[in-house]
Amino acid sequence: MKPSTLSILAGAGALALSLACGAAAAPYHAPRTPDGQPDLQGNWTNATITPFERETKYGDRLALTDQEVKALEGANAQLVADGNKPTDPKAKVTDLPTDCGRGFTGVNCGYNAAWVDPGTRIIDMGGIKRDSIIVSPANGRLPPMKPEAQAAMRARFGGARGRGGAGAADNPEGRSLGERCIMSFGSSAGPPMLPLLYNNNYQIVQTKDEIAIEVEMVHDVRHIHLTGGHVPANMKLWMGDSVGHWDGDTLVVETTNMRPEQNFRGASVGSKIVERFTRVSPSQIKYSFTVDDPQIYTAPYTGEVALNSTKGPIYEYACHEGNYALPGILAGARTEEKEAKAAKGAATGGK
Known about the structure:
The structure is a single chain. The protein is α+β, with helices and mostly antiparallel strands. It is built from four helices and 14 strands.
């Protein structure tokens, strides 16, 4: 008995549907290097306007609605457009706006949206538009710091030697690593590797035994060793001591032995950061990190960032060339000291 035309069509339709569903459900597998490793190589950017911590109004909700994304990206575009408007050449510092966005106010508004490049889009991974980089705790915010860590943080930033307090410009060593062109601003080089105001580009190069990540900001290079263990605990390194291994298609990197000067968000030298790099598409790497620092925080925290492919090359960040800010800060502080001394002498009749 020959099958009917209807049954043949039905069977063909079912097969087509099955193949389509199977193709959609098939997981992506990264191409391999000549050594057989998942290939993470290329130029990538983590630029985004998604903040590190979530605004409290979102509660435990990670995903933004399409309307919320449109509003946030539109506001950012308007900020850039405003920053690109011509400035009156006769304008004085006192004519600058009191608030020009991205945390800049007053005299710092000379460094407005026309000169920065933090990105223009919200993080999009797996179709979920993220409202924060932190994904754990569930509220998308840093866990509480321990009381003793809070006290140390206040002393660091407000004490006699703290930045922003008395003595903050006594010498170059009192300034930030970024101002001194030693390390990236913020935590661009990491770990964790986080976006900031500009220069959010990376180049990944792999060999059988090592993965190198060139960081655009301040021209840092991270070295992730795939063989051997960690160096002794008394050896503190810039960007820490990173040792990696492959877990399937995911590169897992454990970093310890960070130098105390880096102390990202008050981190201790005993902190441990575990990063995971998974290439989820030809144009995106899912980058996640977990910071475990029991000396400082009451619990570990985890974040996720999209590394999206971008065109190269990555140009050298010649930090020291034209770096007038650091000598200007120190010279300004010396001038203030002389003026204060002269004023004191005048008030006491030179005594």
